[in-house]
Specification:
CATH class: Mainly Beta
Structural class: mainly beta
Number of helices: 2
Number of strands: 12
Largest sheet: 3 strands, antiparallel
CATH superfamily: SET domain
Number of domains: 1
Strand content: 15-25%
Distance between the termini: 20 Å
Order of helices and strands: EEEEHEEEEEEEHE
C-alpha cells in the first residue's frame, strides 16, 4: 500500500491554466492565480487515491497527530481522496477563513470553484472545515491553527470553530436546540 507524503513538493510538469504553486505566507506551498478568475469559474479537480475511510485510518494509524499536513478529503460516507498518493496540485490550495473558493462534490468528484472574483496573483483558498473528533488531543486547536491573516480569521481550521462547552442542566434551564452548522456538502477536508 502506498504511503501518503503530505510534505511532498508540487509537480514540476503539471500545467494549470488558472494557478501556479509556490511558497505561501499562509502555510508551506499555496496556489496563486496566474490570471483573473471569475466568480463561479471551476479552478481544478481535487485528485488522488480514492480509498475507504477504514483504509485511510489504517494508512495513517502511525501518523504524528501533532502534524497538521493532510491531503485527505472526505467525499462521502464511503470514500476519501488521499491526494498525497497520486494527487494533483489542487492539494496545495490552502485553508482560508474568508475564502475565495469552495469545494463542490458532483457525482463523487471534488472540484474547487471560485465563489468571488479572484485577482491575478491572489492566493486561492477555501474553508477546510476539518471536523472535530471526540478523541482529539487537548492541543488540537494549536495543531490546526489558522494563519490566513483575514480580519474574519477564527484562529482554527477546525469546525465548529470552538470546542463545544459541556452544559450543566438544571431543572430551571430550558433545553435549547443546537444551532445548525454550515457544512460544505459533506466535503470537509481532513
Amino acid at each position: 500500500m502506498a504511503k501518503s507524503h503530505p510534505g511532498a513538493r508540487p509537480s514540476r510538469n503539471e500545467v494549470h491554466p488558472r494557478y501556479e504553486v509556490r511558497h505561501s505566507p499562509v502555510h508551506g506551498y499555496g496556489a496563486f492565480a496566474t490570471r483573473d478568475i471569475k466568480k463561479g469559474e471551476r479552478i481544478d479537480e481535487y485528485l488522488g487515491d480514492r480509498i475507504s475511510h477504514e483504509a485511510a485510518d489504517k494508512r495513517y494509524e502511525d501518523y504524528d497527530e501533532s502534524d497538521n499536513h493532510t491531503f485527505l478529503f472526505i467525499v462521502d460516507k464511503h470514500t476519501v481522496i488521499d491526494a498525497g498518493v497520486g494527487g494533483n496540485d489542487a492539494r496545495f490550495i490552502n485553508h482560508q477563513c474568508d475564502p475565495n473558493c469552495e469545494s463542490t462534490i458532483e457525482e463523487g468528484r471534488v472540484y474547487i470553484d471560485a465563489i468571488r472574483p479572484i485577482a491575478r496573483g491572489e492566493e486561492l483558498g477555501y474553508d477546510y472545515q476539518i471536523g472535530r473528533e471526540k478523541d482529539d488531543p487537548p492541543n488540537v486547536d494549536e495543531i490546526y491553527a489558522c494563519r490566513c491573516g483575514s480580519p474574519q480569521c477564527r484562529g482554527t481550521m477546525l469546525w465548529p470553530p470552538k470546542r463545544p462547552a459541556a452544559r450543566k442542566r438544571t431543572k430551571r434551564t430550558k433545553k435549547v436546540a443546537p444551532k445548525a452548522t454550515r457544512r460544505t456538502r459533506s466535503s470537509r477536508k481532513k
